[in-house]
Design goal:
By secondary structure, this protein is an all-alpha fold. Helices cover 28% and strands 0% of the residues. The chain is built from three helices and no strands. The chain has helices spanning 22-32, 38-58, 114-120. The protein is extended.
């Protein structure tokens, strides 16, 4: 059955289709290069974006129902599990985390105004930002 309202999410268990252009195919190739399937890549990407939206809404970064703008992110290397060296190590495994969503803590400091954020990430602004007061000083040795 065709979804007559494209802004409504598909129902659980349905198999939505998406047209894949060259840019989307390249993005999928990057995500799938880690060994996952198409479905794994889409689930992971949608899950990360949804968590970003929920966190922004919960902490008042933007009003609910509007898309937040991602200004920065932090990456980390996956840590491999420590191999057990004796029979006692197996009992030290932590209990599984409870089922449910835990939102990250609010971002540190006050959120940047969109105009100022545009200046920081290098977009052109109607007027030049003010010069730094120490711009004329020589560099430290």
């Amino acid at each position: 059955m065709v979804n007559t309202n494209p802004t409504q999410p598909p129902k659980a268990g349905s198999r939505p289709s998406v047209r894949i252009d060259s840019e989307f195919a390249a993005d999928l190739a990057d995500l799938m290069s880690t060994g996952g399937t198409f479905a794994d890549a889409v689930r992971q990407a949608v899950g990360q974006a949804a968590q970003l939206y929920r966190t922004a809404w919960a902490h008042g970064v933007c009003p609910p129902g509007t898309a937040p703008v991602l200004l920065a992110y932090q990456l980390g290397r996956p840590t491999p599990p420590t191999p057990a060296t004796s029979g006692y190590d197996a009992s030290d495994t932590p209990a599984p985390r409870p089922v449910g969503r835990i939102l990250p803590s609010p971002p540190p400091g006050q959120q940047l105004r969109p105009q100022y954020a545009d200046e920081l990430i290098g977009r052109r602004t109607p007027q030049a930002p003010p010069a730094r007061p120490d711009a004329g000083r020589p560099a430290r040795a």
